[in-house]
Amino acid sequence: MKIKDIKNLILKSLTGDEPDAEVINNLIEATGDFSFSEGFTDKVLDKIFNRDVSESHDIEFLQSLNKIFYRIAISGIAAIILLLISIYISQGSLSIDSFLGLGDIADESIIYILTGN
C-alpha cells in the first residue's frame, strides 16, 4: 500500500464518531499491529525495580564512598604528620606545651598577659 493510501485511511478513521471496522482493519493490514504483547508492562516494571539492579547500585555507592574516605583519610594523616614535623622543628620537642605554643613562656607571664597585673 502506498503512503497516500495509508494517509487516506488514517483521515477516514479520524472523521465521524466511530471509525468503520473495515477502515480500521485496512489500516492495521497496511501498517501492522503495534500493540504490545501480554505482560509487557510487568516485564518492564520488573526490569526497572529489579533487586539485583538496586543491590548493584548500593555496592557501587559503597565502593565510591570507600575510595573517597581513603583519599580524605590519607590526606588528613599527611597533614597531621607535616604539622608534627613543623612543631618539632620549631620547638625542638613534641610536648603538650609545644602543641599549645607555650614553649618558653612561664606561667607568671601568661597570668600577667591575661590580667594586666
Concise overview:
This protein has 117 residues and is an all-alpha fold. It has 2 domains: 1-35, no CATH class; 50-117. Helices cover 74% and strands 0% of the residues.
Question: How are the secondary structure elements laid out?
Answer:
Blueprint: H1 3-14, H2 21-31, H3 40-48, H4 51-91, H5 96-100, H6 107-115
Description:
The protein has helices spanning about 5-15, 20-30, 40-50, 50-90, 95-100, 105-115. The model has no long low-confidence stretch (mean pLDDT about 75). By secondary structure, the chain is mainly alpha-helical.
| Count of distinct strands | 0
What does the largest sheet look like? none
Mean pLDDT: 77
Number of helices: 6
- SS strand fraction: under 5%
The shape, in one word, is rod-shaped
- Distance between the terminal alpha carbons, to the nearest Å? 108 Å
Number of domain units: 2
How helical, in percent, are the residues?
over 70%
N to C succession of SSEs: HHHHHH
Task: Considering the chains and any ligands shown, give keywords for the structure.
mainly alpha; single chain; 2 domains; 6 helices; 117 residues; 74% helix
